[in-house]
Write a structure and sequence with these properties.
single chain, about 325 residues, Immunoglobulin-like, Rossmann fold, seven-stranded mixed β-sheet, 16 strands
């Protein structure tokens, strides 16, 4: 399973830790990381950092050195007095998921400064939305979650603790195979185009469901990531194009097909959560080549708010739009 390294401050003098651009992913088999670290403490100067694992053993592969300035300067520290600032650059390798703890000495009992913890991305927004929706439809029990866009199965894993059944649909063959190999309980991983799978699936489900719609192309090796705000995932993602030309908007995003199937043919109560709403109608929004231009925000709003089945429809935040529908 892919993990993300999450930074947690322990000592208040630790002001900034960067693990490069984008998310710091730890894939199966391990990876090397480079960190930039800033300490600010007028009472003392940090002279040394040692990286240890969860047992207190120094990492075998590490290099930590003080530097005069950062590769990527952080302007907010310019106002701090020079004697209070300490800059470090650290490189290290993790071969398996483990906590990395930074401390000032390799000796046992040395005070920890910060930790880097392998995590599974927690979709807290999903559970916030569900708590609110349950108050809006209090007599309905949602036992099934359908997700489109499995990626590394983080959302499906967390959702499996909330739902009796999770069905996750992924276009990419390798991502689907890797997720299925995890052997997670209460999760069924299906491979295919969700624009085709969802119209079939809505007829299989026999009760209320939550649909989390997050299927879209997120780039591959053909993308110029240097010209992109989003830096991509450590593996390629799939689209419906032929590979000989940049994928079209309809090749990248099946959202309209998914919504049509749910609104027209799903017979039960449903909560629909649309991810990446800010990309609707745009091109090159997150990365060069991304294309959602066949969709219109005005058109989707008219469809979602104008349906006779709609119970509620609202923008939860910049990324998510939420719709509740009643049975047919």
């Amino acid at each position: 399973m892919f993990y993300q390294l999450a930074f947690h401050r322990i000592d208040r003098s630790v002001r900034w830790v960067s693990l490069g651009t984008g998310a710091a992913w730890l894939p199966p088999g391990g990876a090397e990381f480079e960190a930039q670290i800033v300490f600010v403490d007028p009472r003392r100067r940090v002279e040394n950092i040692v990286l240890v694992d969860s047992t207190g053993r120094p990492l075998d592969t590490q290099s930590v050195e003080p530097v005069g300035e950062l590769v990527a300067p952080v302007e907010r520290f310019n106002a701090e007095p020079d004697h209070a600032k300490s800059f470090f650059r650290a490189t290290f390798r993790l071969d398996s998921p483990d906590v990395v703890i930074a401390q000032s000495s390799p000796q046992e009992g040395s005070e920890p400064l910060f930790s880097l913890v392998p995590t599974l991305s927690n979709p807290t927004f999903l559970f916030d939305i569900l708590q609110l929706a349950r108050s809006q439809v209090p007599d309905v029990r949602f036992e099934t979650l359908v997700e489109t866009g499995t990626l590394y199965a983080h959302t499906a894993f967390h959702a499996s603790h909330w739902f009796d059944q999770v069905i996750s649909v992924e276009l990419d063959v390798d991502l689907n195979r890797n997720a299925a190999a995890l052997g997670l309980d209460r999760i069924e991983f299906r491979q295919g185009d969700s624009g085709t799978v969802i119209p079939e699936l809505v007829h299989e489900l026999d009760g209320p469901a939550v649909f989390f719609l997050d299927a879209h192309w997120s780039g591959d090796a053909t993308v110029d990531w240097d010209k992109s705000r989003f830096r991509g995932f450590p593996t390629a993602t799939a689209h419906l194009g032929d590979g000989e030309a940049p994928p079209s908007s309809t090749d990248q995003v099946p959202l309209d097909k998914e919504l049509n199937a749910i609104l027209d043919d799903f017979a039960h109560h449903a909560i629909i959560i649309i991810d990446d709403w800010e990309s609707v109608g745009t091109k090159d929004h997150a990365f060069a080549g991304e294309d959602w231009s066949h969709l219109s925000e005005a058109g989707l709003l008219a469809q979602l708010r104008g349906s006779e089945r709609t119970l509620f429809a609202y923008r939860y935040d910049a990324k998510h739009f939420v719709v509740g529908i009643k049975p047919r």
